[in-house]
Amino acid sequence: MKYAGACHCGKLKASFETQKTPQALGVRTCQCAFCRAHGAVNISDPEGVTTIECAPGDVERYTFALRTADFLICKTCGVYIAAVIGEGDRIVSTLNVAGLRITEFLDIDEAPMEYGAETTEDRIARRYTKWTPTTFSDPALAAANFGPH
User: Fold this and answer.
1) What is the mean pLDDT of residues 90-116?
2) Which of 18, 85, 131, 147 could disulfide-link to 45, CB 3.0 to 4.6 Å?
3) What pLDDT, in 10s, does the model give residues 19-47?
């Protein structure tokens, strides 16, 4: 199944392919201050595929706290769409289905997640294990390093 969405102004787009139903996949709400401020509701599937379409000039790459991932935010409308880690052929992400307005996932009971007790190494390992393999339509972004910084 393929799901797609975009930020409010439409400059940042993402598609997510998975063999799992939205209900089987579930959604997570990280409890950190950044995710709560953005109303983030996240999905990922390590067996799926995510493609992010945006031009480098349209996306802000924001890092905070442990600086282990880049959070992609639209420079025009301010919507947070994804968190990304990795480089080259090993880029993975988690998508914010609320920011992307991927409606198939918005009526699912959210699982609140607390990651504050993780070590930096555990956080990076979890992301590479649990997040979705990701590609970018723009060659400059596809060649970027998305943390850890």
Assistant:
1) 96
2) 18
3) 999 999 999 999 999 999 999 999 999 99
pTM of the entire structure? 0.95
Could you give the domains of the chain?
2-142 (2.170.150.70)
Secondary structure of the chain as H, E, C letters: CEEEEECCCCCCEEEEECCCCHHHHCEEEECCHHHHHHCCCEECCCCCEEEEECCHHHEEEECCCCCCCEEEEECCCCCEEEEEEEECCEEEEEEEHHHHCCHHHCCCCEEEECCCCCCHHHHHHHHHHHCEEEEECCHHHHCCECCCC
